[in-house]
Amino acid sequence: xxxxxAAKAWPVPxxxxxxxxxxxxxxxLKRFGDFTALHSVxxxxxxxxxxxxxxxxxxxxxxxxxxxxxxxAPTDGAILLRGARIERRxxxxxxxxxxxxxxALFPHRSVAENIAFPLKxxxxxxxxxxxxxxxxxxxxxxxxxxADKRIQDCSGGERQRVALxxxxxxxxxxxxxxxxxxxLDYRLRKTLEMELKDLHQRTGKTFVYxxxxxxxxMVMSDRIAIMRAGRFEQIGAxxxxxxxxxxxxxAEFMGExxxxxxxxxxGGLDAGPLQIADGVSARLGLAAGRRATMMIRPEGVxxxxxxxxxxxxxxxxxxxxxxxxxxxxxxxxxDDGRFATVETLREGRIDAAPxxxxxxxWPLARTHIIAEG
Amino acid sequence: MGGxxxxxGLLAAAxxxxxxxxxxxxxLAIVAAFSTMPERVFDLGHxxxxxxxxxxxxxxxxxxxxxxxxxxxxxxxxxxxLCWPLAWAMARIWRRFTLVIxxxxxxxxxxxxxxxxxxxxxxLMKGGLIDGxxxxxxxxxxxxxxxxxxxxxxxxxxxxxxFMLFPMAQGIAMAPEDARAAAMDxxxxxxxxxxxxxxxxxxxxxxxxALLCFVLxxxxxxxxxxxxxxxxxxxxxxxxxxxxxxxxxxxxSALAVSLIAVLGGLVAIGLARVDLDRIMGRR
Lengths: 373, 283
What we know:
The structure holds 2 protein chains of 2 kinds.
Chain A: H1 3-6, E1 21-32, E2 35-46, E3 50-54, H2 61-69, E4 76-81, E5 84-85, E6 96-99, H3 111-115, H4 117-121, H5 126-139, H6 156-169, E7 174-178, H7 186-203, E8 206-211, H8 214-220, E9 223-228, E10 231-236, H9 238-243, H10 248-253, E11 258-265, E12 268-270, E13 275-276, H11 280-284, E14 291-296, E15 302-303, E16 312-323, E17 327-333, E18 339-345, E19 357-362, E20 368-371
Parallel strand pairs in A: 3-8, 3-9, 6-7, 7-8
Antiparallel strand pairs in A: 1-2, 1-4, 4-5, 9-10, 11-12, 11-14, 13-16, 14-20, 15-19, 16-17, 16-19, 17-18
Chain B: H1 3-34, H2 51-58, H3 61-93, H4 96-108, H5 113-124, H6 129-138, H7 149-174, H8 177-185, H9 190-218, H10 222-228, H11 235-243, H12 249-272, H13 276-279
Helix pairs in contact in B: 1-12, 2-12, 3-7, 3-9, 5-10, 7-9, 7-10, 8-9, 9-12, 11-12
């Protein structure tokens, strides 16, 4: 690529183009010896979106991103970039680029040399490289005086930005991120999450980000893909996954949740500790012998006063209060040894002594039913 | 550091300092002093006239100095290329096997250098293994495998390769592995990665190995004597001859001081470019 292309302004994607898949993964399989890290997964990444792949460690997300970046070759399956197959192309022949967990900055090069490295490879002149590096320092809100600083003299957050600037200097079609924020402390991480989201909007690039932190995923992403044991469990907007998880795993992964098993009975419903009002059971439409899980988020649970009723009710004893900051979580022990969690604003908290009886309730509309396969 | 700790440190260093002072610095000082004395004197009670240096130039001893430096440089360059793949594999690819290689290489050092080189002589000499077998099979042998600079360089490469291999492997191991992957990901070819990432990051280790090999090779006597005989004379050989057969201590001293000065200068330049703290893992 010539100087001009590397130094061009960020393209603003047309609204309709933003929906077309830029990257498509079909039946992607990766085995390491006997271990299958990735079970023939499919995925479509839309142009210009911020997609986060999130899952517990060992779920295959790092393997997936290394395959996408070309640092590993798949055992089987296809990766298509704008319709062209790229899965056998090595990383240095793909127009994509990754920000590593370790950042992988070059310790023997200055900040500006690090940033301009991809331009040097393309044979961009020294002066043009320098100019672009300074522009990118600006974009990442680093002072231009940092250009000649040594990497060792930069703080964690600054290194983070240098790594990002270097990736942007490459001007990739897609930017991959392999948990780049995981080594930072909480406050800095929060700041950089915001900056990353902002940078995504300003550059219009497609970002594919992996993390084990759901919070990180929810703050930044347009869509979230949840991985578990080498497969995608659910892909969708954060809101959608939060409100309508397809499995207990996703429901629990997406934060604090109350889950109750329901089982259809001839002429009724076994709902365990739940008291379900007449007529509501029928609306659940659970055939005899069928099981399902009722999900209610802690913030959907109301504390019932004396004489108050709800479509679905639960009795228990007050256990303890956990202060989250602006919100309060409280735990109610149930008779069967399990517990329910209630989340309220500070002023809505239950004022009870430990062991005091508490009645909880919520309408059916606030629940989500996860069918069991 | 507290005062008490400081004194304790000095105390702990004292025995070795004494040994080095008496065993290393004092003889060096004496040699340096002798190098200024008139020819063939055996005490320092004469007016310095630097005739040893004059004779070194007049009789062409500087040629063996240059020859030794050239052979050392060649051997060092060959070692750099030769050791790189093995050092790379030891630092990056093999896990357990690296230990086996390390032990094998160290064990080879347990056999005296002279004995190992005599093995070469027996193989290469006229009427030796190669020549003998060739004569037996084909009726024609090969002369002249020994007593030339290339065979000496080969001997230097053979004897000093551990001194290149281990520092080089250490240098490679110090370089962060992700840096290569990142460079590749940013579009660099294998050669670019080698030039821009691998070599610069391993440079401290390579430099240390190169200095060790160069200094040891330049002063080497056994390789030149056994493999070079009387046809290729190294500077080390000349120094020994001057001190022994020729009984010309000032000449030998002048040769030794010249060698030390050249090597010392080169080492100083080399070390100035190397971050020793990083090699020792302090940063």
